[in-house]
Design brief:
heterodimer, A: alpha+beta, Thiol Ester Dehydrase, Chain A, 4 helices, 7 strands, 24% helix, elongated, B: 5 helices, globular
């Protein structure tokens, strides 16, 4: 267990996450997302003809895309065998999130978002043997305008790394 | 409309939500793409040692962004710049989620908040002799732990039907920054 943690700390800390996740933004997805929160303002749930933008909570949508697609396909070779940075997604705990929309462009139907990231830090809490990752995630649109910067902190319980 | 002159240190923006249901979690799973069955399937959640489905961690985050969207009248008076939150406590179906943001600093047109999201989990209602009158999901599924009791999170209060036992805890502490237009 500790050997695996030490391997991941040595090899994942500071690394770019290979690949990127693409998110095609659809009108219906934005409206359905906003409606879950009871949002009724036409800015977020108005007609397609009048145009809408994503509510801020829609950042949850592309964050989850990033977690599932990027992190679960992040593989390394340990002792000659290929392994993921998480062996069991069921052991994953999402423990913190920062969203920064400073100079971020609005997300609109038809946008094609590109999500990429890097791993800023990895550390082991030896009291409970939870391995923590801190990921920096950048989201840009099809015009290469920044949309939102995300910092995800996630823990993996023992048996999951 | 929110104006700069309205704010001072300690000014509070608050909202509450009591609509966490299995149906809502299914709708959120579909809309967000987070289809992990621990949020939608009790049997899977039980096998994972959770005693029942839990809300998606980021679902509660959306209630924080909505609080500021409503407060800023959907960017008519300002914009949300950042939220920074920790996910500490699981949110369950039936929980009351109280989101409270308190101004901690004002710097130019930027207003900084401490954010605290608390959950109230109802356990049961008993009469004065300890007879059970009503049991909530948390009581049926044993969501409240000995640790919760030791930490003083489990409380009682008088309600019209009898004595309500509930757990109150901070599920999501954090910070937020908004920028006002005037």
């Amino acid at each position: 267990m500790k050997k695996n943690a030490e391997f991941l700390i040595k090899n994942v800390k500071g690394a770019e996450i290979p690949g990127s996740a693409k998110v095609n933004v659809r009108y219906k997805t934005l409206v359905n997302f906003a409606k879950v929160y009871g949002i009724t303002d036409p800015k977020y749930v108005g007609s397609e003809e009048d145009g809408i933008v994503a509510c801020h909570a829609f950042a949850n949508h592309f964050t989850i895309k990033a977690v599932y697609k990027l992190l679960l396909s992040f593989n390394l070779v340990q002792d000659g065998k290929t392994r993921g940075i998480m062996l069991d997604p069921g052991k994953l705990l999402h423990t913190g999130n920062v969203y920064n929309w400073e100079s971020g462009a609005d997300v609109k139907p038809g946008d094609k978002l590109n999500v990429s990231g890097s791993c800023e830090d990895v550390w082991l809490n030896e009291k409970n043997m939870i391995l923590f990752y801190k990921f920096l995630v950048n989201v840009i649109n099809q015009n290469e305008e920044p949309v939102c910067d995300v910092v995800i902190t996630a823990g993996v319980r023992k048996g999951g790394y | 409309m929110a104006k700069f002159s309205d704010y001072n240190i300690g000014y509070v923006v608050k909202d509450q939500f009591e609509g966490v249901t299995r149906e809502l979690l299914r709708a959120y799973a579909k809309a967000s793409g987070d289809t992990n069955p621990i949020h939608t399937n009790d049997a899977v959640a039980e096998r994972a040692g959770l005693k029942g489905v839990i809300a998606h961690g980021l679902f509660s985050t959306g209630l924080i962004t909505k609080l500021f969207e409503d407060h800023l009248e959907h960017e008519k008076s300002g914009k949300l710049i950042e939220i920074n939150i920790e996910m500490r406590g699981m949110v369950r179906c039936g929980d009351l989620i109280i989101t409270e943001a308190t101004v901690s600093k004002i710097d130019g047109k930027r207003v900084f908040f401490d954010v605290e999201q608390r959950t109230i989990t109802k356990v049961d209602i008993k009469d004065k002799n300890g007879n059970l009158i009503k049991q909530f999901e948390a009581g049926e599924r044993d969501y409240v732990s000995e640790k919760d009791i030791e930490r003083g999170l489990v409380k009682t209060k008088d309600v019209p039907e009898g004595i309500l036992t509930y757990r109150e805890r901070i599920a999501t502490p954090g910070t937020a920054i908004i920028e006002l237009f005037e």
